[in-house]
């Protein structure tokens, strides 16, 4: 063979319509995993910089300490409340699909792996929708 | 090197001796060439009895064909026509330079795995009437294309051989004491599916992990290893040796259970299941309670 042709990544996202259930599960699991890691670090950054009130009893009682004001400020933003719904969806899917993968690892119900993926999607959707009123109306601190 | 074949010949299709038996009168009328000239296109539309296939073309040895492209062929439809039948017709009647591997035509030899309408399928096992038209026929993804639908299988075979796909026995008896090595029906049942592999390479081509990690053994090779590792006739030591190969960095642990291989396997081998079972075997082997 003198020469050959490398077609590269022809099975890339351009072919998303042809992906099967297992493939989608894999993509969503990776995606939600990275989202949760991103959230975790943001979470640590926000909370660790808003504990300035430690020890200041008076400020805490008056609800004017850094921690309370930070959270009240964040919860006051509609965008943040919307993102919380997204965070819940991401976390719930990751948990449910994680359980599915646990079953796959144990060799249980591999022939129903596509159904369990759809089930975790539906359940994620249901839980997310159910959470919308709670999150969007805002939490009173 | 000739440049005359910049375009595939769109010669008139003579009557086909092979497919004649079962074809409809409309199919016989269809004499239009393989190329999409407008007339042929219209003819095909009118008759509704031809199958429109788009075939990936590439030939490094002919100038003007070095740039990959798709050729359209309109093949007269006959009852029971497979994807392989359609490309064979296109080659025999329209463009003799169309190249692809095939041999037994009954899903045993494993030569004709193509990427058909976005999925790895065995050409001879796929009914063309089940597919949406135009039927896109491409070489297997993630393998170098040698010519048209022919891909370089060397890497696939290397991975297959890497798992030592042959029966091994630590103590072969003396020559005069040789006898059959019998397998229990239960054990045979256990490895039955894994023994169906025809080395077509569809699974390896469908696997995203194998595409990104050239050292990954891939589903076919792991399945082949499963066949021997699960065979009771091989001794414990050989099984351990096999698991040592499989539990390496680019062995079973690369599998991320996308189920792509299981999805495309033309022999319906539960590849993911076998890989998962070997993962558990590998863990069990290394677990120590002391």
Automatic annotation (TrEMBL), chain A:
One of its GO terms (biological process) is tricarboxylic acid cycle. Pfam families: Sdh_cyt. The keyword Iron-sulfur does not apply. InterPro entries: SdhC_prok, SQR/QFR_C/D, Succ_DH_cytb556, SuccDH_FuR_B_TM-su. GO terms for cellular component: membrane. Keywords: Heme, Iron, Membrane, Metal-binding, Transmembrane, Transmembrane helix. Signal peptide: none annotated. It is found in: Membrane. This is Succinate dehydrogenase, cytochrome b556 subunit.
From TrEMBL, chain B:
Residues 52-157 form the Succinate dehydogenase/fumarate reductase N-terminal domain. Residues 1-46 are annotated as: Disordered. Its cofactor is [4Fe-4S] cluster; [3Fe-4S] cluster; [2Fe-2S] cluster. One of its GO terms (molecular function) is 4 iron, 4 sulfur cluster binding. It holds the Pfam family Fer4_8. GO terms for biological process: respiratory electron transport chain; tricarboxylic acid cycle. SUPFAM superfamilies: 2Fe-2S ferredoxin-like, alpha-helical ferredoxin. InterPro entries: 2Fe-2S_ferredoxin-like_sf, 4Fe4S_Fe-S-bd, Beta-grasp_dom_sf, Helical_ferredxn, SDH/FRD_Iron-Sulfur, Succ_DH/fum_Rdtase_Fe-S, Succ_DH/fum_Rdtase_N. Keywords: 2Fe-2S, 4Fe-4S, Iron, Iron-sulfur, Metal-binding, Oxidoreductase. Residues 194-269 form the 4Fe-4S ferredoxin-type domain. Belongs to the succinate dehydrogenase/fumarate reductase iron-sulfur protein family. This is Succinate dehydrogenase/fumarate reductase iron-sulfur subunit.
